Amino acid sequence: MSGTPPGEAVEVAICIVGAGPVGAALACRLGAEGMPVAIVDRAALPPMEHPDFDGRAYAIASGNRRLLEAAGVWARLPLPSGPIEGIRVSDGRPGRPASPLFLHFDHAEMGEPFGWMTEARSLRVALNATLHAHETITVAAPAEAGVTRDEAGALVRTGDGRTIRARLVVAAEGRESPLRRQAGIPVTRLAYQQSGLVCAVAHERPHRNQALEHFLPGGPFAQLPMAGTEGAPNLSAIVWSERDVLAKRLMALPDAAFTREVQRRLGPHLGTIRPVGRRWLYPLAALHAQRYVDTRLVLIGDAAHGIHPIAGQGLNLGFRDVAALAGLLIETHRAGGDVGDPALLRRYQAARRPANLAMLAATDVLDRLFSNDNPAIRLARDLGIAGVHRMPRLRRAFMRAAMGR
Length: 405
Description:
Blueprint: E1 9-11, E2 14-17, H1 21-32, E3 37-40, E4 57-61, H2 62-70, E5 82-84, E6 86-91, E7 103-106, E8 115-119, H3 120-133, E9 137-140, E10 145-150, E11 153-158, E12 163-166, E13 168-171, H4 178-182, E14 187-203, E15 210-216, E16 219-226, E17 235-243, H5 244-251, H6 255-266, E18 273-289, E19 293-294, E20 297-299, E21 305-306, H7 314-334, H8 342-370, H9 375-389, H10 392-403
Parallel strand pairs: 1-12, 2-3, 2-13, 3-9, 6-15, 13-20
Antiparallel strand pairs: 4-8, 5-8, 6-7, 10-11, 11-12, 14-17, 14-18, 15-16, 16-17, 18-21, 19-20
Helix pairs in contact: 1-3, 1-7, 7-8
């Protein structure tokens, strides 16, 4: 624990357990306001900073860029982020031309990019630097957290015998949150029998900051424009869902065969492609905690909810949790109030749980509607896509939701 000798207790307003992007962003946002915060993670932070591009990137909505700016994180990104200025939504089958009925979102209608593609390693470096830049943030990593809570406060003991006293504990440890289990908070789960393949490709032609969301029978296929690098001036992230069995077979293919499968789904508009970095495979499932709060405890990010990646909103929902919770905590701290007050926690739950549940329902319906090859359903969804394209008010409503406005 930085700056704290073993055996000495640290007094903070909030202790965050989990230093992933969501938990670390909350610590940075609160630290930027001078609030005393501790953050604990079982992993050491520097090894999370991959020195080479590993194929992973985040699509950060414009609204959440403002959160990271306020937290002091955005200015510390060591690598450029690429704007998403257009999104083309289409339907089709692998190896065949996309349906002529499509939906196009243009950032010119909104006055700013929809979001920014940021390399995972770049965000991690910026988060780590910001955590250590604020004197009011205490970092304990690697460290296991043993937490006891009651109406008076919370006590967090780390594996090396140090103690953190806090008014509130924030669970940000991910989908299998030990703190959520300890609190006895039930979770609703949905299995998709799909896996997500994540990688990056360099391509012959420029993407012009345009993204593609292509709906295929096995699941959605997304190409997301990234800022180029010295070795790959034209670079895109690929996020691709397939049935579990096929996804595992695709992951086992040699590079040349795997690249051909990506090209079949991407189409020819970016020219010849080649893989950059490594491939990643993630099982896909949705979950939603039946409540977000307990005595001196609040859930954020994947500890509270997880959705299908069909709309690229998973991390963005977590950042919206951070923005909502941070706003309430900062306001209460400035007024000299109790940041663990049950009424405050209920306000956070009322602000975020319905919105997250609505997004879970929407992505679940979209996946079930688009991840099939029924001719009647395909015709209906193609007509629906084209219909939204021709309805400016509805189209702009979709764009505002994607941007986090």
